[in-house]
Amino acid sequence: MKKLLATLSALGFLVAVYGQQLPQYTQFQKNPYLVNPAATGAHDMFNMSLGGRLQWVGLSNAPSTSYLYLSTPASKFRSAFMNRTYGKVTRNNKSVKHPKMRIGGLVHGFGGQLLVDQFGAFRTLKFAGSYAVHLPINRTYTLSFGTNAGLSSHTFLTDKAQVLSTLTATGVNDPVYIAQANTGAQYVMDIDAGMYFYGNGFYTGFAATNLTRNLVRFGNLNTNFAPVMHFFGTLGYRFIVNNRMDVTPGLLVKYVRNAPVSVEANVLLDFNDVFWIGITYRHLDAVAFLAGTTINEKFRIGYSFDLSISRLINYNSGGHELVLSYIFGEKRRSFSSFN
Fold first, then answer.
1. Pairing mode, if any, of strands 122-136 and 239-240?
2. pTM of the model
């Protein structure tokens, strides 16, 4: 009982402080579209990613997330007044074609997302479509604007909930539990928006989620689900060390009203655009280790392990995140962020 109460206390602390209504993503730098819809279609290829995350393994009813994401540029909408060009970088005193990102042409990107997220007795199922327009500032930098719109369902799972009267055998009924039990899901319209500025190894962006909050909803209106706006800021720069290795430090800042700012800083080492390793520090929450590889220029596998440094460290054995991507298009393009 003491362990259970301590766990519930820690969970309550984290929910109160960080307000976790949205999934956590450790591999955000390799998958920027997860935190900003303006990344949709930024790479000149079709990308299909399947991801899964288990957070706080060993803790009962800990958060778990699964998602499927599709993204592609629509080349047929490319402006007829702009030629397709790529940036250039210098390696060994030679100017070579930069294979990372498309620049110099107006491009429209389209995508879609299916997400299932569960935290305790609450489950969210979301289906959304994404659109982004990439506007060339010059032959080096591009500014993109994107939006993500869809529908999410929020369900209270009675079989995952335990009320205090059951644990303590007091026989006192919980009116909140009774009101929520077997009442079905609440459906909410979700709209997110973001912008990105990128080029020459640099990227920065800003995004906001749940812009409509619960203004448009239907289904079980008795469920007291109140989505709040989340704000994300990203920043990073890719340093070319030599012709075989790049280093990309990145920063992710998250803000929710009435909660402290959450900051994540990471560094990725990319070897020949084939294998990468990295480390992430999430303030007051976790340290994460990342690794991944590209196979046959078509498949990409990324894995990360989160080690808790919060008060939950005594109640879980860490977190795991796995992302599998299938890439096809013209030539393979590196997935390092906005370079």
1. unpaired
2. 0.80
CA distances from 305 to 27, 35, 329 (A): 10, 19, 31
- How many Å apart are CA 158 and CA 181, to the nearest integer? 6
d(CA 178, CA 297): 54
Nearest to 149 by CA among 210, 107, 196: 210
Q: Give, in order, the Cα–Cα distances in Å from 201 to each of 44, 88, 236, 237, 248.
A: 16, 10, 8, 5, 9
What residues form DSSP beta bridges with 119? Answer: 122
DSSP 316: -
Taking alpha carbons only, the member of 24, 43, 42 closest to residue 332 is 43
Nearest-angstrom CA–CA distance, 304 and 57: 13
The vertex-186 CA angle with 183 and 189, nearest 5°, equals: 170
Q: What are phi and psi of 35, to 5 degrees?
A: -115, -5
Q: What are phi and psi of 270, to 5 degrees?
A: -110, 125
- The Cα-based distances of 261 to 15, 16, 19, 207 in angstroms read 14, 13, 11, 15
Residue for token pair 């009962």: 60
The residues, ordered by sequence, that sit 6+ positions from 192 with a Cβ below 8 Å of its Cβ are 37, 128, 147, 148, 149, 207, 208, 209, 210, 211
- Domain range summary for the chain, segments of one domain joined by +: 2-329
The length of the chain is: 339
- Residue predicted with more confidence, 323 or 7: 323
- C-beta of residue 335 within 8 angstroms of C-beta of residue 30: yes
pLDDT-based confidence at 9, cuts 50/70/90?
very low
Q: Which residue has the higher pLDDT, 179 or 14?
A: 179
What gap in Å lies between CA 24 and CA 290, rounded to an integer?
15
Q: Please give the residue that has the higher pLDDT: either 321 or 101.
A: 321
Kindly list the distances between the CA atom of residue 214 and the CA atoms of 74, 171, 211, 259, 266, in Å, as whole numbers in the listed order. 32, 35, 9, 20, 34
- How do 202-209 and 186-199 pair as beta strands? antiparallel
For the domain 2-329, what is the CATH superfamily, name and number? Answer: monomeric porin ompg (2.40.160.40)
